[in-house]
Amino acid sequence: MAVLAGECEPVQMTHCINITTYNFTTFPNYLGMQNQVDAANEAGGYKYHEIWTSDCYAYDLEFLVHFIYASLYVFAECSPAYSMDYNDVINCFDLPDSDDPTVCFQNPYQPGKPQVLETKPCKRMGYNVTAFPNLAGQIAEPIALEMVNMIQGIQAATRCYRYSGLFACAVYLPPYSGNQTVPYHVIPPCRSLCEEYRYQCEFFLEIFESPLPENLSCSQLPQSNDTNICIGAKESREPPPVLPCPAGNITCDKNRCIPRDWICDGYQDCRDNSDEKYCALCPADKTKCPPPSSQCIEVTSQCDGRKDCYGGLDELQCVKLEGRVRPGLAQAFNPESKKWEPICSSNWNVSFSELLCKQLGYRKVLVSTYKFSDVFQSAVVDELSTSHPGNLVQQFLKRRSYCPSGMAVYIKCGDIECGERPAYVPSPLRVVGGREVRPGAWPWVVSLHGGPSQNFFCGASLIDEEWVMTAAHCVGGKQTSGGWTLKVGHTRRRSYSQYRLIRHADRIIIHPNFSPYTVDNDIALIHLNEPVQFNDFVRPICLAPKGYIPPLGTRCVAAGWGKHNFKAQVYSRAINQVELEIVNWEYCREALKHADPKPPHNLTRNMMCAGGGLDHDSCSGDSGGPFVCRQNGTADKWFAAGIVSWGVLCATPNVPGVYTTLPNYADWISDVIANHTKSVT
After folding, report:
1. What letter would DSSP give residue 186?
2. Among 129, 109, 113, CA closest to 58
């Protein structure tokens, strides 16, 4: 039965019942609506995200409820936050103004009034009473708690500052002081805590597009060891903790922890080489082959052009081109002195330059020339061996104490050979449900680090000498180049690696149609401040050609330093890989639709799916890394079909992971690279 105008009726809108202190309303309301159905539809038009993230008034949702139900208050403060111009509907000056709650609804906000915290995060800091407004000007716990949770979420993802939680609570849900010595009856963070948090974490706040309040100036905060004046002075001055290595690890280089199974495995993980130096597996005049073989060979057999170890691993990293100091200088490794020596021009010719470029992953020589050398010890082409067939430059070289010509070889190579991994050997060891890989397994995988402490937070892929590809959500709102550190050529994240190259970003390019809300077009390119020099542990990945999608059921590989499972606290110590089958798009959409918990996004045609099996998935920290497939008809040549993008937790049974579909972006990638002047010509 219809309710007559002016007649009371019970409030039936659920969230209004939970918020309001009254149980009855009447119509028409101030917007002219005649019933609760119309009012509810109008209220539902204001998205909760927009309401709760609005800074104009922390009681926005309650404001809308009362507004719709004819109990309007603080009207002028909130009208700019909504698309409707309420001034065309109602004039605030026409409303009554009275302290009598039977005349008009009272503003519930009372500055400085103590409020008991309803939620746990800040209670764990040792207090349970706060007051409003906080330092961001907010006057209610729900929106303040959102900001606390956001900062703690960033901390969980990046480990940027161990007192992030303390800082968040001090800003958004500060302790109640109960006196007038500080503004608003709350105790703010100390200046030093604010400054340290900004220094360590502001890089990541930009990525997650979560800036601190504009009115929060560290310089204007008090500084005192008295916790009744400000909090965090003691904590902000504490040096980083020196923690003992976990069980099963050893210490080297004073502050580096490495697992015991990395000792005497043929790979140098300590800068001082203490993990390999004292291994008594071979006589003093011999050296151990890298795994999986434990064979001992003569030191002079290393880098001599003959493959004595399994997989020819003794012939890796034997030649290279200098990068920064003397760009293009050809060098050969001397296994006896453990030093790199310039290659002498005597007996050298362009055929050797072509061979060296091919050995480093290029198809052709762009420049081959000679320049004066002031280094006496050199690698010289041996005239006696030049007629012997071979495909490794070091097969033709002999160490000499002088260079007859006095000139060294300088080379510039071009036309990259992508998708190859010369340092790869099958690994017997064990992303989620995957296995830990040995150095050299995926030479195009890059780790992204941010901020002054170079905290790891995402993966990426090297696609040529100057460009790295990652997920756009790993870049987020941080589109300036400052603060980025990129590391390529290593698989063991915290160990020393003589093959690792460190670069910085000088340009960030996010796909113009990327949406942080839908994560559609989740791709970005990073231009390096300096080109990398390819070697056996640093190589680029090929990209899938435009329009090519691997057939359903194709087994491809996701690789990265992501967590072993959703509940893990830290990222993996080394790259893990997992094989996943590409699944049908429609099946994936249905699986996501019925997933528990609900997926954070909807599947689009720019996304592909793989996996879905128990304990087989990429996970947090793998984002931005490559999803690669083996090229048909090849034994070990790979191309990137996707970028690790998102999923429902990690390894949720029967729910595939989601990857950016790279073939959709072939033209965009080519255009970006072509429109940016390259350093290598």
Report:
1. B
2. 109
Q: What would the DSSP string read from start to end of 217-264?
A: -GGGS---S-TTT-B-HHHHTPPPP-PPPPTTEEEETTTEEEEGGGTT
Residues 95-145: pLDDT tens digits? 788 888 778 777 767 788 899 998 888 999 989 999 988 999 888 898 899
R_g over Cα of the chain: 31
Burial class of residue 550, CB neighbours in 10 A (0-12, 13-18, 19+): buried
How far CA 670 is from CA of 368, 467, 513, in Å, comes to 28, 11, 16
Strands 129-131 and 256-259: what pairing?
unpaired
What percent of the chain is modeled with pLDDT above 90?
52
For 29, the token pair is 């309301």
Angle at 532 between CA 265 and CA 323, to 5 degrees: 95
Instruction: Please return the burial class of 7, using the count of CB atoms within 10 Å of its CB with bins 0-12, 13-18 and 19+.
Output: exposed
Active site residues: 473, 522, 623
Reading phi first (left if > 0) and then psi (alpha if -120 to 50, else beta), residue 183 is in: beta
How far is 296 from 1, CA to CA, in rounded Å? 94
Q: Which residue has the tokens 């309303």?
A: 25
Is residue 659 a contact partner of residue 607, using CB atoms and an 8 Å limit? yes
pLDDT-derived band at 16, boundaries 50, 70, 90: low
CA distance 648 to 653: 10
| CA dist., res. 347 & res. 115, Å (int) | 85
SS3 state of residue 642: strand
How many CA atoms, within 13 angstroms, populate the side-chain half-sphere of residue 52?
10
Task: Give mean pLDDT, residues 504-517.
Answer: 94
Max CA-CA distance within the chain?
A: 110
| Burial (0-12, 13-18, 19+ Cβ within 10 Å), 414 | middle
605 CB burial (10 A radius; 0-12, 13-18, 19+): exposed
In the numeric block, which tokens belong to residue 597?
């918990």
C-alpha dist (Å) from residue 604 to 391, 589, 661, 664 = 47, 9, 10, 12
Q: For the purposes of burial, counting CB atoms within 10 Å of the CB of 510, is it exposed (0-12), middle (13-18) or buried (19 or more)?
A: buried
The pTM of this model reads 0.82
Q: Give the Cα-Cα-Cα angle 446, 634, 419 (nearest 5 degrees).
A: 20
Closest CA to 233 of 184, 187, 201: 187
> Which tens digits make up the pLDDT trace of 238-276?
988 877 888 889 899 988 999 998 888 878 899 998 988
Closest alpha carbon to 471 in 626, 325, 334: 626
